Amino acid sequence: xxxxxxxxxxxxxxxxxxxxxxxxxxxxxxxxxxxxxxxxxxxxxxxxxxxxxxxxxxxxxxxxxxxxxxxxxxxxxxxxxxxxxxxxxxxxxxxxxxxxxxxxxxxxxxxxxxxxxxxxxxxxxxxxxxxxxxxxxxxxxxxxxxxxxxxxxxxxxxxxxxxxxxxxxxxxxxxxxxxxxxxxxxxxxxx
Amino acid sequence: xxxxxxxxxxxxxxxxxxxxxxxxxxxxxxxxxxxxxxxxxxxxxxxx
Lengths: 191, 48
Hints:
The structure holds 2 protein chains of 2 kinds. Chain A is of the alpha+beta class. Chain A has a domain at about 15-120 and about 170-190. Helices cover about 15% and strands about 35% of the residues of chain A. By secondary structure, chain B is mainly β. The termini of chain B are far apart. Strand 6 (about 95-105) of chain A pairs antiparallel with strand 1 of chain B.
């Protein structure tokens, strides 16, 4: 195949009125007292997902195309299956997300133009990497440099501290979990 | 994260945007209801 030929010509285009719901993981930031919580993409320095407003995809090649573009990797990412997210770097929040606008369906997930979370839960990223989504409820949330918030279960907090990761402050995970769902006005993710 | 090859494009125009309903602020308490003034019926003095 000629590398200059767009993949878009090979794909079918469907039109619907029902948003697509997918799995997604986020990083989390907030102040030392657990306020000003913000969901952020786990990779890169993309824009945060602000409460009560749709997230909109943007591409660093915005002058060339809108996001998502078939021939690029831009767009808001989500997956069909939660297990794929175990490969994500440093997930703090796991959730179900609604996508709409232009959505490109891939073999294992989606890239979308607009999105908003529908259900959210904090996860201990170390439990999630090891065992998947079950049994990953954290006990505390560590507040680290640059307002990064990392949820831990007790055993993984101790392990992280042994390896030199020392949160400056610990906040109760139940409180942050509830505050996060209130901030985004969404329900608890059951898994 | 690798999500495989693209399969199809879907244009989704939802009937309603899947955002939560904005929380309406609680109304401020208004002034206390004013009790109606009792009518004073003039009583004529009994005829002497």
